[in-house]
Amino acid sequence: MAAGDPDDGEAQDPGGAGPRPDVPGAFVISITPFDRDGALDEAALAAHLRRIGRAGLGVYVAGGGSGEAYSMSTDEVRRVLQVAVAELKGVVPVRGMGVEPRRADDMVRFAALAEEAGLDAVQIYSLELGHGERPVQREIRRYYDDVLSATDLPAVLSTHMSVGYLLPVPLIADLVAEYDIAGINCTAADMGYVRALIDAVEPAVPVHVGVPGQAFLTWAAGGSGFLTSEANLIPETAALVARRHRAGDHDGAIALYDRFLRIGGAMYEAGGIRANKCLLNELGLAGGYPRLPRLPVTMDDPGMADLLAWAREPEMADREGWGR
Fold first, then answer.
1. Long-range contacts of 206-214 (CB under 8 A, 24+ apart)
2. Residue 27: strand pairing partners
3. Per-residue pLDDT tens for 162-182?
4. Is the pTM of this model over 0.85?
5. Which of 50, 55, 146 is nearest to 107 (CA)?
6. pLDDT value, residue 324
7. CA-to-CA distance for 291 and 301, rounded, in angstroms?
8. Which residues, 6+ apart, have CB-to-CB distance to 205 below 8 Å?
9. What gap in Å lies between CA 321 and CA 116, rounded to an integer?
């Protein structure tokens, strides 16, 4: 962060302008660093989480996308959760994300690992039956009753278009009324659905959208913030977008948000978390390598030179700390 920036000293308060200022305005879905041979790199993971924690972002670990949890054994997932608690518990909200389950038992086992490790909350993914099949509403309800009744951890409900359906808003409202629900993570292209969800549960239960490009629409509707994978590379920038918005500096927030989204879009075109890890390594930070079936990208791959040039712009480099 540049010297004299009016946001200095607020790194632990990156909340949004929504009705829950006690809740972070942004949660990062953490990468999981592996070494060149594919082994879990616990030292790199710890260093990466400490960096995110310094920015004041909330953190999800062991996710199926950015976290590559589909590639991990149960013991590896357990260690990721334990490292996250050791580094972040009491510093920022730290939660387990998990992967989309085929059965309630799959989600119950992950929730048990999260509870055993001492995380603050656990995300409950929507049921994914596989083969393109969608569960009917009574099957969805049975699934949530089975999972939510099996854990004492606060739960974060996920409604995500990747499983082929979105949870009915009345069902979410019923679950909020009956169980200890700490938040809703909503990834949906339909902002009408997002608004209906916010109207149904905020401010009692914070709603974060899984599409960073919807952040300002979500705040305008009364939601709490957004989830981001981009913040694995630029956590201070993500946190500062939310802090400036909360402080009423909307022009400053939008200007920074534009650069945040441009870097994020270019990163996904260059390979997503593969590019993210490659850039972190290039900048001397803890990125590690993707695990098979993903293959790493290199700085010679298309788009990587432009991403590195953006990252090394003086303002960005100073804010993120690799320019000091």
1. 206/18, 206/20, 206/23, 206/182, 207/183, 208/26, 208/27, 208/183, 208/184, 209/185, 210/160, 210/185, 210/186, 211/187, 212/260, 212/261, 212/264, 213/261
2. 58, 227
3. 999 999 999 999 999 999 999
4. yes
5. 146
6. 59
7. 18
8. 176, 181, 182, 183, 184
9. 34
Would you say how long the chain is, in residues? 324
List beta partners, residue 289: 34
d(CA 291, CA 269) in angstroms, rounded, equals: 19
pLDDT at 21 (0 to 100): 64
What pLDDT score was predicted for residue 308? 94
pLDDT at 12 over 90: no
User: Within 10 A of 230 (CB to CB), how many other CB atoms are there?
Assistant: 23
Closest by Cα among 117, 97, 120 to 107 = 97
Asked if residue 97 lies in contact with residue 62, where contact means CB atoms within 8 angstroms, the answer is yes
Mean pLDDT in residue range 129-144: 93
**3-state DSSP call for residue 50?**
helix
Alpha-helical (H) ranges within 33-135 are 42-55, 74-88, 104-117
For the record, the structure tokens of 74 come out as 């149960």
The Cα 224–Cα 161 span in angstroms is 20
